[in-house]
User: Fold this.
Amino acid sequence: MSENIPNRQPETQASAETGPAKASRFNPGLALAVVALVLIGWQWLDSRQHSNAVEQNLGRRLAEFDSRNKESQIVAARAQEESRQAMVKLGMLEQKVTESQNQQVALEALYQELSRNRDEWVLAEIEQILLIASQQLQLAGNPKAALIALQTADSRLQRLDKPQFIGLRKAIVKDIERLQALPAVDVVGYSLRLDSLANAVDDLPLLIGGEVPAEHAAAKPRGEEPPWAKLGREIWQDVKQLVRIQNMENPEAPLLAPTQAYFLRENLRLRLLSARISLLRHDEVTYKTDLKAADTWLRRYFDVKAKPTQAALANLKQLASGPVSIEMPDISGSLNAVRNYKLVRERSGK
Assistant:
């Protein structure tokens, strides 16, 4: 055993000598370099990965931008197309507006022409109506007809409702007020009463004198009769007229032959008809003269105690008491206003 121990000591010494030798061979710089290389490698890898991520993100964003750009181009193209269509539609609308304005101008010109012609027609119509009213008043003496004509002209202007006709309406209204202020005369009623009296003349009894024979009153032609019959009839009429017996209550009453009684009635009828004509002409002097003559003839030749005669006298008295003559007003103001307006319109060219 002692022999083996000395052999192990040299091995232990050899191992102790190799250990420090190995420890003396370790280089720190190399370790730092290795670490630096590792760090640089890791950093390079990290930066490479980061660069790749950035590149991928950038590529993705570029792809998105590219797609959005394409979409924007498509939208822009659509917008441009819509804008072009809108411009076309706008041009069509402007053309239609221009045509509409031209049509409106033409319609306004046509309306003004029609309005001007219509106003001229209305003025001509109003002038004719006022001329008729003036003629009815001055020539025929008929204020009612003149008043109706003036009211017709005023209503015609009122329906137009135009301010340029206000002056004409004022003149017409003044003439209407003048006619309405006239006293009322019942010309139609008086005329009918005179006509009734004229028709009743044949029914009034005479005071003295025979009635008109039938052959004189009717004056109707007889048919052909034999000569001997005609001669006999004439002889019989002459015999009847030779002697007449009548009760004379009034000895001063004139005696009238039958033919004279016939002509008396006809003259009385003519007096009444003449009074009627004077009434229509508003000739009060002739009217009352005819009525006075008719009243005198009734009292002188007819039986005043008979009811028909009394009724006729009462009617004549009432007819003679009322005025028939009216001082007609001057209604030329409205007619002159229309003519002056037409003259001014023609001079102004409107």
About this structure: Residues 209 and 256 are 5 Å apart (CA to CA). The radius of gyration is 68 Å.
